[in-house]
Description:
Number of strands: 19
Structural class: alpha+beta
Mean pLDDT: 86
Number of helices: 19
Strand content: 15-25%
Distance between the termini: 45 Å
Helix content: 25-40%
Radius of gyration: 24 Å
Shape: globular
Strand order of the largest sheet: 4-5-6-3-2-7-14-19-18
Oligomer: single chain
Amino acid sequence: MRSIISFQARACVHSTVRGRYRGSCAVLRWSSTEARQWSTPLAKRLSEAITATGPIPLAAFMRMCLTSDLGGYYMSKQDGRDPFGQKGDFITSPEISQIFGELIGIWFVAEWMAQGRKSKGVELVEIGPGRGTLMDDMLRTIRNFKPMASSIEAVYMVEASPSLREAQKQLLCGDAPMTETSIGHQSISKYANLPIIWTENIRFVPSDQDKSPFIVAHEFFDALPIHAFQSISPSDSAQETIQTPTGEHNLTPDTAKRQPKGPQWREMVVSPTPTGATHTDLHTPKPLQSSTAPPEFQLTLSKSATPHSLYLPEISPRYRALKFLPDSLIEISPESHAYSQEFARRIGGSKEAPKKEPSGAAIILDYGPSDTIPTNSLRGIREHKRVSPLYSPGLVDLSADVDFTALAEAALGASPGVEVHGPVEQGQFLLSMGIKERAEMLMMGLKEEEKRKGVEGAWKRLVDRGGSGMGKVYKAMAILPESGGRRRPVGFGGDVEG
């Protein structure tokens, strides 16, 4: 399904790039005295912020919707709402079948074996752990491999949401007390008395030359904010102003003369919709019109350059090549690049701080294209249904496709001590890891036909490659210590070693 970005962007572009706005494409400034009923407190705060600063980047809108302390989607526990599972807004692979987490645990065991079976200094790190289901299945599996289990010194959970942190603690630690630490919180796992440590950002996880971090990020990168840009043709790109968080400002005559006269990038920005606007006015995609009221916010194309549009599309030749194709749309997630770089530096060191012996591994499982730049991918999900991502801020889950090639570029650029494998389709990865065989073992131990059908249906759903099946849409990518091409990891064309 096409995203709302393309409909609104193309509706606005022809008037926007010529320096005028009409109808729903207008840059709106709202009077503080104008009465309007907003769907959520967060919607009201966003409108007030835009009144003060002008339209905001899509990335800023996403960040507020997902992590604001005033009703952000992942930060609040409204009426006992749980985003995950059948009763929530979406369901993830670990919630569908325990086998998913078991196989990720086995993948880490295989990497630990291939890297020499270290007897100490191993750390497990999960980024965006949801309810903790994945880590619970991993730990339950790894405890059966005693040598690796005894080498694990700590488990780190990178989680910003207090309510999700509490859910993870209950699942992983039960009644064990939770205490505050210098970097967050800590408790004791019900498996092998391992310390479970929570922190809000991976930067707070201690990094040491002697540590071997085994990192998993499942459906984490899709929730990181994106910036969206569209290229405009040379005849429309003469620039005399720049849009900043404090408003639109005129360039000095000398600066204006130095601006390039060729194609330029413009940023998609968010502003409130006019009061009383309809789905037709806002160009809401027809499949989304029946599920919600018209959204309170809209995407428009900035009529002048922004600091982000001058910098971000120039960081990669993949983006620069599209600049000369008018109306090209691209999405860039700087936070995603930063996390991939951090994974790589922890595993392989950096040019500034080389790691004597690169060790550890990271596996990223998410959805997005294998080798193209995501476009038009912003989506909203509520109660397992697609809704406008600009509707009811804080009540709708927002996500966007992951640019796996950009993650690989970021990792390889950050550390000379790593290599990247994949992405491969999730179906291929799980089948090569033995999901079918594991499911058959589970079914043999079940007497009830209904339960056997449940196990069978779950694993087949995870590897389904038809249409928009999870086995096709979701991908797996690994960051490993550089091996000079001597080996491939299991699940990516390699065999178990060591």
